[in-house]
């Protein structure tokens, strides 16, 4: 199943995306603490069923680009089930301290004892063929983190992460049988959207990098060629409108408030959406991210690029709220209002 086609299927399910600048790591003094902070943000994303993590640059330089690529790799590493990491990532200098990332305990990070779920993440390792149903057939061997691999009918690309469906009864039988002569269970190749649609499971996030705030908002990982993918885009700032005073419109993006004329959302009801993006600023705030964006030069009110520009923690006791804290606060505050 084509990777791009799998991503397109996310257009049929509700997605939650978060975006933040790589500069949130500016004041992290060591690579060990950087990995730890990645783990904090990744866990926040998983807790709130985030489907897409977007990391964008505020300044363009070789150093900032190198850091952005390293952060993307660390977030992807955190999302990957533990039993696949060595095969997927190998040994890389950027992942030297990835062991400090706390386990996400995501629903697709299944342990060997968790064999009642019919879906598992795996990686294709080798091809084989043998007689099945009276004729010689080709299969692809897939490591799914259990005592034995499963066999996928057909010849599929190797060293590729896949989502498979396998009968839990076959898995229980396989785990109970110690005999090496037992034939590996057969699995079916499915889309990673299947566990979401059919069992309402959370199945991890994708990571996207962006060169600027504008690119973070205008792009998406699911259908890159499609502009305006998100129904709702929310910016967050201590200078935003107090979330407590906002009563979201029951509308689509076409009804977004006219920020330049001072209009604000005023209609009661939970906001209806399929794809939402929540954007966070760095140490210097989202205003600084906008000021660094050359595509926003000359823009009288950069707030107009958002559907809502919110302060989700009014009357804060600290003079600053760290981005990893803001993500938890904001998604917690939005959850009852948006039915996240």
TrEMBL record:
It holds the Pfam family Methyltrn_RNA_3. It comes from the Eukaryota. InterPro entries: Alpha/beta_knot_MTases, NA-bd_OB-fold, Put_MeTrfase-C9orf114-like, tRNA_m1G_MTases_N. PANTHER family: CLASS IV SAM-BINDING METHYLTRANSFERASE-RELATED (PTHR12150), METHYLTRANSFERASE C9ORF114-RELATED (PTHR12150:SF13). Belongs to the class IV-like SAM-binding methyltransferase superfamily. This is Uncharacterized protein C9orf114.
